[in-house]
Specification:
This protein starts with a helix and ends with a helix. It has two domains: 76 residues, lambda repressor-like DNA-binding domains (434 Repressor (Amino-terminal Domain)); 160 residues, no CATH class. It is 50% helix and 14% strand. With 257 residues, the protein is of the alpha+beta class.
């Protein structure tokens, strides 16, 4: 592949805020394949080129052109004068629900929910509306940790978490020494983010902040370890994108008043 095209693929990926792992996930390929494209060691096939063009909202000519003048000028990919209908036409024409080793990823139209090792990331109507932690990606340029709502960092009261953690530690030690339930008693620690985010969700009137995935994981472990019902309780994980879809609608209505 031409080195200029390879460099352009890197630039476009970073402008969209994707890590190599996240892009590979969307394309259904390995991260190593993306890395080889960006080092000009191999080229995407026709199908992947078309998908990349749709994903980056550029034409195939722009994607494969060898003239770097347009990109070196710093002109943004997204224009303010583009109508919403035109943007919608350029959106990728596929939706997905993916549960894998690197998290849970859901997309429907212009709504996305990504839950990974580094946090939670929600996109509504093409814009980031919530990030807890550093987002779902693995790159260091995903932003600082914390809770961000529509690009604004919220002042999280970490003292509340500290008090909850101490209380939970006391409960864990009590059930451990009293009933020898060191396992699976450790799952009580998952109640800390559940309670903390529930309190803050009420405080900031934003249902998206609630750590619903942690609640589902807590319930899954409880029914698995205590009730020995691992199946079909795992299906509850599919309610996560549904929750954030409804939470977004509820929060939007509350903010209208």
């Amino acid at each position: 592949m031409n080195i200029e095209i390879a460099n352009r693929l890197v630039e476009l990926r970073k402008k969209r805020g994707f890590s190599q792992e996240a892009l590979a996930e969307k394309l259904g390929i390995s991260r190593q394949a993306v890395s080889k494209w960006e080092r000009a060691e191999s080229s995407p096939d026709t199908s992947n080129l078309i998908t990349l063009a749709k994903l980056y909202n550029v034409s195939l000519d722009e994607l494969l052109a060898t003239d770097q003048e347009k990109f070196e000028s710093g002109a943004p990919i997204y224009k303010e004068d583009i109508s919403d209908s035109a943007v919608e036409e350029k959106e990728p024409d596929y939706d997905y629900v993916n549960i894998s080793w690197n998290g849970i990823h859901y997309k429907e139209g212009r709504e996305e929910v990504h839950i990974g090792w580094r946090g939670l990331h929600i996109i509504e109507d093409g814009k980031e509306t919530l990030r807890i932690g550093k987002g779902y990606g693995f790159d260091s340029d995903m932003g600082e940790g914390g809770i961000w709502v529509e690009g604004k960092e919220l002042n999280h009261n970490w003292r509340v978490d500290g008090v909850l953690l101490l209380i939970t530690l006391g409960i864990y030690l009590w059930i451990g020494f009293e009933y020898s339930l060191w396992h699976p008693g450790w799952i009580v620690f998952l109640t800390v983010p559940v309670i903390s985010t529930f309190v803050h969700a009420i405080k900031w009137k934003n249902a998206n902040i609630f750590a619903y995935p942690v609640l589902i994981f807590l319930g899954y472990l409880y029914f698995g370890f205590v009730e020995e019902i691992w199946h079909p309780t795992w299906l509850a994980f599919f309610t996560i994108p549904v929750y954030y879809f409804l939470a977004g609608k509820i929060t939007e209505k509350e903010n209208d008043f």
